[in-house]
Amino acid sequence: MVVTHHDFLADRTRVPPGPDRGTLKVFYGFAGALTAQAQIAGLVLDDTYAVELTRLRIGRRLNGTLAYFPDCSWPEVGRPAGYYTDPVISYVWGAGPTAFTFTSKSSRTPPATYYDLVLAVGGKFADDGSPSSEEHFYLQV
What we know:
The chain is mostly beta strands. The chain is built from no helices and 11 strands. The radius of gyration is 15 Å and the shape is globular.
């Protein structure tokens, strides 16, 4: 999986707080709006997979809470550290989509900063393997 259509790259290694993740892709959000996109490749017929967006509720990390609600079909899963997934269970390679877009808005205006979010993909190979991949990226508000 690869995060795509980002706005720019940023290296926040010298800007605390938060872990040193080096240079990451950045989506620029207006008053908490987010559109994150990912592309999946390399699976074979009958592999199953789902995509997840997480770390939207991250407590006091990075100067405040980023609490989002989706204005798309991705369901929210988990409490209190919710995340969003598409689909709820899984797609089958060859029949399901290979590109994913998550669009949402903040229920309030979060503090202006960078937020460290994650898009991930996981599933099950038809030959009994269990693929997974994740990519951290920043949302700059």
